[in-house]
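Extended Data, record NudC domain-containing protein 1
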Amino acid sequence: MAGAAPCSLRAKRLLLDPKFEGYKLSLEPLACYQLGLDAAVAEVKLGDDQYTLDHMRAFGMYNYLHLDSWYQDSVYYVDQLGRVMNLSVTLDTALQKPREVFRLPTDLTACDNRLCASMHFSSSRWVALSDGTGRLYLIKSGKRGNSTSEKWEIVFNEELGSPFIIAHSVSFVKSDVHSVAVLLLRVEKDELDTKGSGFHITLEWVTIAEISKEGDHRYEIFKRRVLQGKSVPHYAAIEPNGDGLMIVSYKPFKFLQEEDDKLEENDDAEATNEKKDPLYYWQQTEDDVTVTVNVPRNITKDDIKVRFAPDSICVTLKDQPPLIEGQLYSSVDHESCTWIIREDK
């Protein structure tokens, strides 16, 4: 949960066209198709206590049509009856009649303090779905876009606190274990904020993994992490392998420490205090890199074996396991590399 390293964005000159003269305005009319629905979209209007710019950006300007990036001719929406409806949209054709693919088990109108229902397509066969009341559903959809094979099945659902919308989700496999990571967004009252808007933004990063116990396969929450900030992010997504977050925001986000994290940090701090001096030091100029390794006294040159390679280094004392072994950051001229013993250490 350490801070991300800064990166530099540079233009790729090979992609720039030096002969480009500019854009031209087209006056050709755009095709527009309309279709009547038998039930309205489940729109949720902002309440009296949702008056800030962040509420407007997060919930007031919400797009109720969800594009399936895995099947780009398909869009989905949730109607007032709690039905997830699928609609095929292709260019230069009339809109097809929406079809129901799933129905939320809860009555949306029965909850007063709710947000708009939201969904995100984690993969070609997995969907993360929120009913807007604070309950998260993980759904195995089958192959979407085909009525014969698209069968939405709930494999996980749990109440996760106050209402949220789903900002992003990914499906991945690690060590033969399938997991789905979901990023939840909330705008919550901040009693300690007396000079600002009185609210803060919460991003909850939930990882749900497949657990096998005595032949029974089910999905459970593997880890929950919470970040807090003061502005709704312009962009927030989970890294494809579930290893990190990518956030673009006007104001920074910070992880809130859980008790388990504090215990782990204390353990790490104790282990660090027990460690001795670093195994090696290094310095670098434009021409070379110098690595200094501390070795026990009374070690002779014959006891040391150093192996240089174009992209790695290995230092061994007598017949012991390597003192240092690993990949270099970049390639070196290994034939010009050398080593010496200084001050017998």
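Summary. The chain has two domains: 35-259, 281-327.
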